[in-house]
Hints:
The chain is an all-beta fold.
Amino acid sequence: MSKVFKKTSGNGHIALYLGKRDFVDHVDSVEVVDGVVKVDPSGLEGRKVYVYLACAFRYGSDDLDVIGLSFRRDIWIKRVQVYPPTEAATAKTPMQESLMKKVGEQGCPFSFQLPTDLPCSVSLQPGPNDAGKACGVDFEVKAYLANSPDNADEVIEKKDTCRLMIRKIQFAPATNKAGPKAEISKQFMMTDKPVHLEASLGKEIYYHGDPITVSVKINNETAKVVKKIKISVEQLTSVVLYSSDTYTKAVCTEEFGETVNANSTFEKTLQITPLLASNKEKRGLSVDGRLKDEDTHLASTTLSSGEKEMQGIIVSYKVKINLMVSSGGLLGGLTASDVTLELPLTLMSPKPAEVTLD
């Protein structure tokens, strides 16, 4: 195993071990979250060792929690007792076998099966002057000493806990399909013929950082002039907790000075590349969850089986094609109008090469 993630409690009596911190959501199933807790029974003082896995929505910094308000809401939580063992030993996963070799006889394995209707790890980008942890959805594995798994009256001291943040992530499906296509005809005041716009994307799924190809066909049957073409990519972030709120932010906008004169046609493939690097100052933009301060990118499109409503943060994208049409002449700018078309966009990361355990 190339790397082991370890966190030891302040009192040194328990230590949490994970073989990885990224767990893949395949839409119809999620990888098992499996690990090992090393337990020193001499320091337990009659208490038991529990592990929980929680998916939570964080909407404020922990350092703001000065008046007893909770700034996180658990979307899903599950607890298991690992010591003393409560049931007959089950077969260990390959990951647990590898970790047990490192930990030794004091290792207690645990595993969790995440449901498919949980969101992925997403952060909302803070503004330039915002301090503290970013808002968003995170996943936490925590081992702790306690007399019971979840007693609100029992005080669990920080020195009796150890925790590691993990990520639930999705990768683009292996197969890519033809891109979406749409068309619209728009008639203007005092004209009897329309401007016809047809647009399509080169493929269904694009990877972060790749240029998005947009094929545009225009048939201008009017006496007006298409002055320019504006293409933008918009990120739609739906926050589904107590209610559902959707926030739309443009992550990339390009204007192309292509002119389509009256009674003429136009056909061209244009490119646009949305990048997080161009949106670093944009507060509230969804980015893929990160562990520590590593680089990340725009949040990936959330894939869902659609069987249950997902809570947390759901991300989608659309490409908007806008024709700016004017009548020309002295009043051209005053009588300008638009023809707008939208296409759904799936923006994701490719699945990395398989890594095998030693």
